[in-house]
Amino acid sequence: MKQRISATGGALALLVLLAALQAAGQTQKPPPPAGTESTDLFSCRTAGTAPHTFKICVSQNGNLVRFEAPAGTNHMYSEGYLVCYQRTGQPPKQAFSGLFESGWGPVISPPAPGTFPLTLRRRTTDGVLELTQLISWDSVKKDLVIEMRLKNLTGSFVNAQILRFFDADVGGDASDDIFDRTALSVTARDTMGTALPVYTRGVMVSAVSDNPTPVINSYSDWISGGQNNCSYQPPAGRTSPTALGDWVGRLEHLNFGGLTAGRTETFKLIY
């Protein structure tokens, strides 16, 4: 197994706020920042008839912002991606997109709002890597398909790793979810109601690409150092399924051997 690339950084003010709320035992999270390029409702699709609809919305930077069913109940608190990379003889770097952003430049030639499928291309701020996201909606299977293509723009080898994460609060609330993982996926679920019949809602991200590494973090692990750090590992003892709690799932694409000059690596997954 390749050694993980360690890099940290980002919007420290937001991290400090979230960590303070968690330390105080506050289960109600602050609302995600609205209207930013990684949290806006740029392109949405809806299936079904109200009130039994299923709706997804993607930001202009390619983050899954809403995962809604039935109408008005959003199960997604935050979602995004992280790329960690290192050139030979240079310090490690990271490019993160979630509730805040660091290390990424703007989307190049962005599509019009409401477009589906989406093609979103952006580069790291140092020009080393280019990420193209192909995001499509399967109206029959009700799947959101995300294909991430990471390209080395330099003339030399770059060690790189790709991660996709989701902080699902199933049912629109935190602290009472159960997360599971398999060899290819991470699932969040919540039992809704106490009167019979009891039913379960959930969110699952599953990798289509080979050899993903599914990881489950507690929310407190995540905000205290895990979200924009490829080297972070959750404390030992994280079982699957988890106990009731507030969790974050991620799929890691780590061991593809890095990127030689001009090479493109693809990581494909489905929600």
Q: Brief description of this entry?
A:
By secondary structure, this protein is mostly beta strands. The protein has helices spanning 12-23, 219-226, and strands at residues 43-49, 52-58, 64-68, 76-87, 93-97, 101-102, 118-123, 129-138, 143-152, 158-168, 178-181, 185-192, 199-207, 213-218, 247-253, 264-270.
Structure description:
By secondary structure, the chain is mainly beta. Helices cover 7% and strands 43% of the residues. The protein has two helices and 16 strands. It has helices spanning 12-23, 219-226, and strands at 43-49, 52-58, 64-68, 76-87, 93-97, 101-102, 118-123, 129-138, 143-152, 158-168, 178-181, 185-192, 199-207, 213-218, 247-253, 264-270. The strands form three sheets. Strands 7-8-9-16-13-12-11 form a seven-stranded antiparallel β-sheet, with no helix packed on it. The protein has a six-stranded antiparallel β-sheet with strand order 6-5-4-10-15-14. Strands 1-2-3 form a three-stranded antiparallel β-sheet, with no helix packed on it. Helix 1 (12-23) packs antiparallel against helix 2. The chain is globular and about 55 Å long. The two termini are 27 Å apart. The model is unreliable at 6-27 and 194-199 (pLDDT under 50).
